[in-house]
Amino acid sequence: MPNPGHKKRKTRHSGRNFRMTRKEPGATMLALADTGLLRLVDELLLSVLDFVTSLGDLRNFAATCTRLQGLAEPYIWRSLLVTSGTYARDVAIALDKRDERVDFIQELSIRYKDTDKEGIEDLNHWITLMSKLRHLTLESPCPNNSEWGRGEIFDGWSRIDYSNLMASAVFTREGLPVAFPMLQSCR
């Protein structure tokens, strides 16, 4: 019989087939270790994470085990810079795998060139769900940029749905709170 306090994980399928390459540890493996770094309590580990500035080091820390992943992910996802559609798709897939990552994002900058635009639109849904977002920067290609001086054709539209984004920040949506309740700056 399921535990009434147990939260059921939502499952969404992106159309891709993923194969589990490692088994998740059981509940007995998540206890404090007898020696080493994992013997420290979470508060001390979080104090250590406050001093880690390299995103690569944070990713390595998170890849160590499930416990450290849970502690490091808020630091990894705190600030995102999206510069291509390929990276935007990767971010959307990662957010789809673990919904709580959306709440970790406090700063989002989207700056892409017209040549890297395919996939940027995958973030439209996720941007409105970022309830802890404080700083938002959206830069779309425009004809005033130097890249248009070579006679390239400008299609005149952005991959980010600005009108829906701003409407969701003002009008309530059925079953969802108003977007950007903590937003401090938008450029």
What is the average per-residue confidence, as pLDDT, rounded to a whole number? Answer: 79
β-strand percent reads 5-15%
Low-confidence stretches at least 5 residues in length (pLDDT < 50)?
6-29
Name the shape in a single word: globular
Measured between the Cα atoms of the first and last residue, the distance is: 51 Å
Helix content: 25-40%
Largest sheet: 4 strands, parallel
Domains, number: 2
Radius of gyration: 20 Å
Number of helices: 6
**Derived structural class:** alpha/beta
**Element order, helices and strands?**
HHHEHEHEHE
How many runs of DSSP E, i.e. beta strands?
4
Task: List the strand order in the largest sheet.
Answer: 1-2-3-4
Describe the structure.
The chain is of the alpha/beta class. The protein has 2 domains: 38-76; 77-144 and 160-187, no CATH class. 29% of the residues lie in helices and 9% in strands. It has 6 helices and 4 strands, in the order αααβαβαβαβ. It has helices spanning 42-49, 55-64, 66-76, 85-97, 124-127, 162-170, and strands at 79-82, 107-111, 135-139, 185-186. β3 (135-139), α6 and β4 (185-186) form a beta-alpha-beta unit. The N and C termini lie far apart (51 Å).
